[in-house]
Structure to design on (59 residues):
């Protein structure tokens, strides 16, 4: 699944994972979202600036 970052809820991430689906939100632009998705265990994510994301996350 590739849901937009603004429409994706925590419960949706957990539910999709329960069904065995990978969750890869787009387009992550804030540190708060990077941290949130890391905490929730998303499988991957889309960003506009990979160097920016690497500075804040180990995803």
């Amino acid at each position: 699944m590739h849901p937009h970052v603004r429409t994706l809820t925590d419960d949706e991430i957990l539910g999709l994972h329960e069904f065995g689906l990978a969750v890869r939100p787009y387009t992550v632009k804030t540190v708060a979202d990077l941290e949130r998705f890391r905490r929730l265990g998303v499988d991957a994510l889309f960003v506009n600036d990979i160097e920016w994301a690497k500075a804040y996350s180990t995803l």
Observations:
- The mean pLDDT is 92.
- Helices lie at 10-18, 31-40, 50-56.
- The chain is about 45% helix and 0% strand.
- The longest helix spans residues 31-40.
